[in-house]
Please model this.
Amino acid sequence: GGDLKGDVATVRDNLFAKGVMRDLESQETREILQAFADEKEEEVPTTTIRKKLPLYGSKRVGAIVRSLKQRNLLKKIPGKESTYAVATRLLRLWLRLSQVGKRPPD
Model:
Protein backbone atom coordinates (compact mmCIF):
# COMPACT_ATOMS: atom_id res chain seq x y z
CA GLY A 1 0.00 0.00 0.00
CA GLY A 2 1.49 3.24 1.18
CA ASP A 3 -0.04 6.63 0.74
CA LEU A 4 0.07 7.63 -2.92
CA LYS A 5 -0.07 11.36 -2.21
CA GLY A 6 2.88 10.99 0.14
CA ASP A 7 4.72 8.98 -2.50
CA VAL A 8 4.07 11.63 -5.12
CA ALA A 9 5.34 14.36 -2.80
CA THR A 10 8.47 12.32 -2.11
CA VAL A 11 9.10 11.74 -5.79
CA ARG A 12 8.56 15.41 -6.51
CA ASP A 13 11.00 16.41 -3.80
CA ASN A 14 13.58 13.98 -5.16
CA LEU A 15 13.10 15.27 -8.69
CA PHE A 16 13.30 18.87 -7.63
CA ALA A 17 16.47 18.01 -5.75
CA LYS A 18 17.90 16.50 -8.93
CA GLY A 19 17.09 19.66 -10.85
CA VAL A 20 14.56 17.94 -13.07
CA MET A 21 12.12 20.79 -12.82
CA ARG A 22 14.80 23.27 -13.76
CA ASP A 23 15.20 21.18 -16.92
CA LEU A 24 11.47 21.44 -17.47
CA GLU A 25 11.18 25.20 -17.28
CA SER A 26 9.97 25.51 -20.86
CA GLN A 27 6.32 24.77 -21.51
CA GLU A 28 7.05 22.80 -24.67
CA THR A 29 9.59 20.58 -22.91
CA ARG A 30 7.05 19.82 -20.18
CA GLU A 31 4.31 19.13 -22.71
CA ILE A 32 6.46 16.71 -24.68
CA LEU A 33 7.60 14.81 -21.60
CA GLN A 34 3.99 14.78 -20.40
CA ALA A 35 2.87 13.38 -23.76
CA PHE A 36 5.30 10.47 -23.35
CA ALA A 37 4.12 9.82 -19.80
CA ASP A 38 0.44 9.88 -20.73
CA GLU A 39 0.71 7.12 -23.33
CA LYS A 40 -0.56 3.68 -22.28
CA GLU A 41 2.61 2.02 -23.51
CA GLU A 42 5.88 2.95 -21.86
CA GLU A 43 7.73 2.80 -25.17
CA VAL A 44 6.55 5.62 -27.40
CA PRO A 45 7.63 6.40 -30.98
CA THR A 46 8.32 10.08 -31.57
CA THR A 47 5.78 9.96 -34.43
CA THR A 48 3.06 9.46 -31.79
CA ILE A 49 4.23 12.56 -29.92
CA ARG A 50 4.32 14.58 -33.15
CA LYS A 51 0.71 13.63 -33.83
CA LYS A 52 -0.30 14.63 -30.30
CA LEU A 53 1.49 17.98 -30.51
CA PRO A 54 1.14 19.06 -34.14
CA LEU A 55 1.83 22.71 -33.37
CA TYR A 56 5.48 22.04 -32.65
CA GLY A 57 6.41 20.44 -35.96
CA SER A 58 8.60 17.38 -36.23
CA LYS A 59 11.97 19.20 -36.17
CA ARG A 60 11.13 20.91 -32.89
CA VAL A 61 9.82 17.69 -31.31
CA GLY A 62 12.96 15.86 -32.45
CA ALA A 63 15.23 18.50 -30.96
CA ILE A 64 13.41 18.51 -27.62
CA VAL A 65 13.36 14.70 -27.45
CA ARG A 66 17.13 14.65 -28.03
CA SER A 67 17.66 17.22 -25.31
CA LEU A 68 15.45 15.26 -22.89
CA LYS A 69 17.51 12.17 -23.67
CA GLN A 70 20.76 14.05 -23.00
CA ARG A 71 19.36 15.10 -19.63
CA ASN A 72 18.39 11.49 -18.86
CA LEU A 73 14.68 12.29 -18.68
CA LEU A 74 13.96 10.04 -21.66
CA LYS A 75 15.72 6.84 -22.61
CA LYS A 76 16.12 5.48 -26.13
CA ILE A 77 14.65 2.02 -26.67
CA PRO A 78 17.37 -0.14 -28.25
CA GLY A 79 16.48 -1.78 -31.54
CA LYS A 80 13.47 0.45 -32.14
CA GLU A 81 13.82 3.46 -34.36
CA SER A 82 12.96 6.84 -32.78
CA THR A 83 11.26 5.18 -29.82
CA TYR A 84 11.74 6.45 -26.29
CA ALA A 85 10.43 5.93 -22.79
CA VAL A 86 10.33 8.19 -19.75
CA ALA A 87 13.64 7.44 -18.03
CA THR A 88 12.24 5.90 -14.83
CA ARG A 89 8.93 4.47 -13.71
CA LEU A 90 8.83 6.92 -10.82
CA LEU A 91 9.29 9.90 -13.09
CA ARG A 92 6.58 8.57 -15.40
CA LEU A 93 4.21 8.03 -12.47
CA TRP A 94 4.90 11.49 -11.12
CA LEU A 95 4.30 13.12 -14.51
CA ARG A 96 1.02 11.25 -14.91
CA LEU A 97 -0.16 12.31 -11.46
CA SER A 98 1.10 15.86 -11.41
CA GLN A 99 0.25 16.74 -15.04
CA VAL A 100 3.03 19.36 -15.17
CA GLY A 101 2.74 19.50 -18.94
CA LYS A 102 -0.92 20.40 -19.06
CA ARG A 103 -1.66 23.96 -20.03
CA PRO A 104 -3.74 25.71 -17.38
CA PRO A 105 -7.22 26.46 -18.69
CA ASP A 106 -7.77 30.11 -19.63
User: Anything to note?
Assistant: Strands lie at 44-45, 74-76, 83-86. The longest helix spans residues 4-17. The mean pLDDT is 84. The first strand starts at residue 44 and ends at 45.
